[in-house]
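Ticket closed. Logging final result for Sulfurtransferase.
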Amino acid sequence: MNIPPRPSARRATTRLAVLLCWSLGCSAALAQLTAMVAVEPTARKAAHSILRTAAESGLAKASGQPVALATSDDLADVMRATRSAGYDIFIGPAQVAASALQRGYELVGATHKSDKYLLVGLVQIDAVPAMKGRRLYLPQQDSIYTYMARGMLNEAGLSFQDLRAVQYEKFPQAGLTALTLGSTDATVVREDDWAEWAAAHPGTARVLATSQPVPGGFSVVVKKDLPADARNRLAQWFGATPASTGLPPVTLRPEATEYRRVAELGLFTPTSLPGVSRITAREAQTLLAQGATLVDTRTEKEFKAKRIRGAVFAAYVEKSLKDVAFNAAQDDFQALDKLPGLDKAKPVIFACNGAECWKSYKAAKVAAAKGYKSVYWLRGGLPEWDAIGLPTEGG
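Final structure:
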């Protein structure tokens, strides 16, 4: 005969299970928070200094939940994660925080004072417009340096496509060396780095443009839907992180306008696309009900996790510049041609992860060039659709 345990025995058993799960990393019984430390490829030493086990332990004690922490210097992948709210906590450079702050996160603060970035060129280049047809040295596309370069060029009416070449490397300081060697015409550096280099190399280069202040070091954001007490405890922990974690303390709180400027200078798509109709989520819903096809151009992982109900998957593999003058030949959108039953005469809608995501913009432009007659672009993508409560699936 089986006798059910008394309530006190059940409570004791539950406590024991929780303790065992905590010690063994059992995430089934305890909800686990996830954190991403995104490191500029230009600052890899910062990643090596972070002691993951100590940071996970400290965050777990602060939040009252197990925490899994990952690090990455693939900023393109991290930016995709911010657009899909892929982690509970992001610790990274300003552009990572700027993207997350538009998608349900709140700012804890930053670890270093704000910096200005300078577009510097050889002395014979007298102004930014004279960069047309010239060479530019930058770190990878999603680096903060590249964000600043794009913004300063755009303000002068130039696109990256107006340049003769954009060379993407790992370290921005090497751009200054490239200037001295004559292998590039311009680069972007932090104001402090420029001051030191210019003093040692007088007459080599000049400042062509200066950015507005940008939050420095790491910025930390957490999901707004975490319990308020957990968010407060996490903020307190980040404000006085133990030296054993390798994470610098978050002691500054930059103005929200600084993050908005970073986002606007970075990867925002245009508000219109010639030959393609830009639509809202409500309009997309109506078109779907009338028989249109909605093509989700994100990664397969994102599509499986959450998608617009009824969407079909065709990944746009993006390698070209995030720019109105992108080179489609550098990208891979063969998936469009493989979609079964897609009729070029019928309406087709392209969507991805919102205004910062260029995949649907590029996909819509490519489809129009391939002869699709009724091409629509849902610029707000899944975030706009989800924000007004329209049906989703997956996960």
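The domain at 117-210 is CATH 3.40.190.10 (D-Maltodextrin-Binding Protein; domain 2). No further action required.
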